[in-house]
């Protein structure tokens, strides 16, 4: 089958198919007399494998390793498992990072009036560059406390002491 057919059958764009071929994830395609690339069913299976691995967020170097293991009938499944568990651990770490970023942004947004005034605790917090994304800086806490009702800060402090 030609490149367009292989792309449709695998769910990988023709451009990515050519790229995967150029970096060695896929073997060099045969050519017709007219110079068109020709792909086999085995190539399409490999492309589907690559697409699924990419959907799981695996980097190309690990996909290359997995293709080698997939094609090696004498492989040790422990090698495949190690790659999968390492990647899962990296994803968990990224999830933690993204969660801290979301919490930081939500905290900054909660501290913002969001009105016509130019004061912006979001910009202030970003400019201060607090290294701990999960914890707002002292100035953001102070700004939030000034905007809250007089008893709210004391109430929050009491709740913290109770936990």
TrEMBL record:
Record-level GO cellular component terms: cytoplasm
Entries under Pfam families matching the protein: MerR (PF00376), MerR-DNA-bind (PF09278)
Q: Which UniProt keywords apply?
A: Cytoplasm, DNA-binding, Transcription, Transcription regulation
Q: Which residues form the HTH merR-type domain?
A: 1-69
The region called Disordered is annotated at: 131-163
Please state where this protein is localized. Answer: Cytoplasm
Q: Name one GO biological process term.
A: positive regulation of DNA-templated transcription
Protein's UniProt keywords contain DNA-binding: yes
Main localisation: cytoplasm
Kindly give the NCBIfam families that the UniProt entry links to this protein: CueR
Q: What is this protein called in UniProt?
A: Cu(I)-responsive transcriptional regulator
Species of origin reads Muricoccus nepalensis
- Lineage of the organism: Bacteria, Pseudomonadati, Pseudomonadota, Alphaproteobacteria, Acetobacterales
């Amino acid at each position: 089958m030609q490149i367009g057919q292989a792309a449709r059958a695998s769910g990988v764009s023709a451009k990515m198919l050519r790229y995967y071929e150029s970096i060695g994830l896929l073997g060099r395609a045969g050519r017709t007399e007219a110079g068109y690339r020709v792909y086999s069913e085995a190539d399409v299976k490999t492309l589907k494998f690559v697409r699924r691995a990419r959907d799981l967020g695996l980097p190309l170097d690990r996909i290359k390793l997995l293709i080698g293991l997939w094609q090696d009938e004498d492989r040790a499944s422990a090698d495949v498992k190690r790659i999968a568990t390492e990647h899962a651990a990296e994803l968990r770490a990224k999830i933690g990072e993204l969660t801290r970023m979301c919490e930081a942004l939500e905290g900054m947004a909660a501290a913002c009036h969001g009105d016509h005034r130019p004061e912006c605790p979001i910009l202030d917090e970003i400019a201060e560059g607090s290294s701990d994304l999960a914890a707002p800086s002292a100035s953001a806490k102070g700004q939030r406390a000034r905007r809250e009702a007089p008893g709210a800060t004391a109430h929050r402090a009491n709740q913290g002491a109770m936990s």
